[in-house]
């Protein structure tokens, strides 16, 4: 994660104040977007979201020397009291590890740094000297002890919360805006999307695509639905002749084989969706069956572009009537291809051009996600 910047509202040339309003701004080498059903609440909503992002960055970014998570290294294995927010973020990361049988492991900070991912991806040189890629298991999430706010972190363990912190923060932000401001809201952090409160007429719509130049899809989201995508295409860097990406297999501490270029999952929370999509990348060929067992609607795209859908994800030919004047809410990801998602009850339609959003907002940039 990188330091946040204060948002500037996106232009909303819309004379009908009953339609949603949106603001977007750069954060964590991606884009944050907040869309509210009550335009009068937009300024307050974006301030709430920006404040939450700044708070998370201050405690959980392993790229900031002053971040609380980095200061844990000095403890050298001694139990430490951590802040309530960091305890919450570590707690959900450990829960995700437990839920996935270790496929999502927060103890990969050291191995990621060893592979060259030791700073924000925007500051990471595209190329660099070769690195020695050593096959070894992750230090192991079971070795991390968290009791309330008391954390015991072994001296050889560096945490990386990237697989869960951003998605959990999207959930936190959406719930906070809906509760405090009484408006329906969609929050997208690099394409990790959470919704809360009443949706706009016709529901939320998200325009997404898998690769630049491919037809875009418009996805309708039922109220309370969340989406997340994990990918082997984004956050990549080269060391010597090796092209590396940030989703490591905890069994080897190496980038997971690119069986799937993207996996998108719909769930009741963004955290649950991103936990499942990250685990699917790591599980490789076993991912579709695992997602079916969990009953999660998902869309997996393999290295050749073949699409596999599970648990009720509709075929592109299954079209229902489009929602009336529903907005398309998106968040761009600068360094990677983009992807699409749908959950049971959603509709998916294919658009052949980059049209204006149905809400009257400017044509959105394409949705993406870093995890």
Describe the structure in brief.
The chain has 371 residues and is an alpha+beta fold. 23% of the residues lie in helices and 23% in strands.
Mean pLDDT: 78
Shape: globular
Strand content: 15-25%
Low-confidence stretches: 2-16, 314-371
Largest sheet: 5 strands, antiparallel
Output the helix-strand order.
EEEHHEHHEEHEEEEEEEEEEHHEEE
Number of helices: 7
Tally of DSSP β-strands: 19
Specify the CATH class.
Alpha Beta
Catalytic activity: L-threonyl-[protein] + FAD = FMN-L-threonyl-[protein] + AMP + H(+)
Keywords: FAD, Flavoprotein, Lipoprotein, Magnesium, Metal-binding, Transferase
GO molecular function, one term: transferase activity
Protein name: FAD:protein FMN transferase
Helix and strand topology:
Blueprint: E1 8-9, E2 21-27, E3 30-36, H1 42-60, H2 68-71, E4 80-81, H3 84-99, H4 109-114, E5 145-147, E6 150-152, H5 165-181, E7 185-189, E8 192-196, E9 204-208, E10 216-221, E11 226-231, E12 236-239, E13 242-245, E14 248-249, E15 254-255, E16 260-267, H6 270-283, H7 287-294, E17 298-302, E18 307-310, E19 348-351
Antiparallel strand pairs: 1-2, 2-3, 3-7, 4-6, 5-6, 7-8, 9-10, 10-19, 11-16, 12-13, 14-15, 16-17, 17-18
Features:
disordered N terminus, five-stranded antiparallel beta sheet, flavoprotein, disordered C terminus, 371 residues, T-fold, 19 strands, alpha+beta, globular, four-stranded antiparallel beta sheet, 23% helix
């Amino acid at each position: 994660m990188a330091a946040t910047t204060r948002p500037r509202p996106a232009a909303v040339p819309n004379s009908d104040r009953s339609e949603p309003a949106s603001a977007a701004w750069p954060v964590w080498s991606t884009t944050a977007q907040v869309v509210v059903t009550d335009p009068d609440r937009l300024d307050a909503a974006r301030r709430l979201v920006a404040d939450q992002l700044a708070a998370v960055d201050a405690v959980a970014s392993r790229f900031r020397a002053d971040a609380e998570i980095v200061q844990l290294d000095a403890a050298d294995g001694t139990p430490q009291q951590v802040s309530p927010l960091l305890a919450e973020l570590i707690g959900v990361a450990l829960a995700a590890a437990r839920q996935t049988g270790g496929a999502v492991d927060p103890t990969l900070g050291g191995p990621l740094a060893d592979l060259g991912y030791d700073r924000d991806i925007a500051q990471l040189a595209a190329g660099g000297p070769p690195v020695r890629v050593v096959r070894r298991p992750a230090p192991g999430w079971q070795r991390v002890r968290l009791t309330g706010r008391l954390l015991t972190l072994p001296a050889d363990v560096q945490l990386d919360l990237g697989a869960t912190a951003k998605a959990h923060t999207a959930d936190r932000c959406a719930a906070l805006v809906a509760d405090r401001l009484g408006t329906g809201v969609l929050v997208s952090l690099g394409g990790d999307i959470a919704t809360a409160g009443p949706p706009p007429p016709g529901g939320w719509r998200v325009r997404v695509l898998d690769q630049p130049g491919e037809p875009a899809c418009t996805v309708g989201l039922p109220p309370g639905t969340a989406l997340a995508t994990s990918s082997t295409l984004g956050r990549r860097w080269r060391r010597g002749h090796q092209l590396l990406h940030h989703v490591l297999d905890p069994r080897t501490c190496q980038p997971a084989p690119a069986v799937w270029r993207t996996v998108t999952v719909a769930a009741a929370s963004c955290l649950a969706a991103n936990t499942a999509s990250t685990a699917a990348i790591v599980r490789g060929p076993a991912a579709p069956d695992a997602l079916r067992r969990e009953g999660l609607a998902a869309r997996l795209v393999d290295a050749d572009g073949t699409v596999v859908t599970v648990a009720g994800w509709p075929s592109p030919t299954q079209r229902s009537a489009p929602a009336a004047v529903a907005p398309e809410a998106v968040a761009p990801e600068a360094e990677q291809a983009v992807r699409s998602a749908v959950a049971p009850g959603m509709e998916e339609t294919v658009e052949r051009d980059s049209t204006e959003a149905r809400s009257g907002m400017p044509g959105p940039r394409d949705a993406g996600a870093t995890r």
